[in-house]
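Supplementary Note 3. Input sequence used for the single-chain structure prediction.
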Amino acid sequence: MKRNPSAGGQGSKGAREIESPLLPCPPAPFHPVWSQIIFLLPLSLLLLTSCATSRSALPQLPPITSSTELLRLISSRYDSLRDQDMRATVDLTIDGVRERRASARVWHKKIPAELKMVIGGMGITFMSARAQNDTLHVHLPRENHYIVGQSEKVLYTLTGVDLSYYTIDHAILGLPNLTLLDAPRVSRFEPDRENILLELRYPLYLRRLWIVTQTGLLREEKIYDPDGQLISTRRLSDYRDEKGFALPRHIEIHQGQDIIRINVKSRNINPGLSKKDFNLRVPGDVTRYDVER
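The predicted structure, written as discrete structure tokens, is reproduced below.
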């Protein structure tokens, strides 16, 4: 655990679904350790979870002449991507110390917005989590802890990496976090032969994005504070054609000495996920902690 939130603990009898109402808990210290949930996977498991995906050339675009045109393209590119089931490996570095690799399975549904993630290996689950609306529920079986709070704040507590610049689902799945509503924030639009530089200004930070000119795909994104200091970098690479959607197989987020690397092994696109696919069951005797908003 990277941070120590103000939290509360509470247990109850019998297993429950997270849809049940949750009561506030009194303050108590909380010190789970991320490294305890990471497990080194053998090569054989990686081979089993891999699948053949098209490496053919991605569709080429005509020249993009304005930031509005670019934002419209990016925001509409994944309109028909309703849900997906993704398998990946995750490498985490905290304070410059690299933890061991873990396997991850991620389920995502656009409407209603839901994300479920299970991390473990060799049949053992070390962490399971469900994000619904703006709330993340995390169960750590080894510690028997159940953590609830605003999605990006809970993950920051666990990893030390702030995903609020991208939102949790866009960060984990490798999707661009841009819409036409960002048009008034554009301060620079500079296309060249290789990349389009798009700069957006927000009240508390500045975003610079490098988008591949020929494909319109996000390659790199950097976040700067008001003093111009770099505070976060996201890189997306190894794009593949996944049933008509160009999606990255490699995702990296760097914030100082803290790094998240996600290597996607397979994506099942639009499988028709149901509500039960996002159920998260936890034991009745867990100790619950609330991360303050």
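Residues 3-53 have pLDDT under 50 and may be disordered. Residues 35-41+64-177+237-271 form a domain with the outer membrane lipoprotein receptor (LolB), chain A fold (CATH 2.50.20.10).
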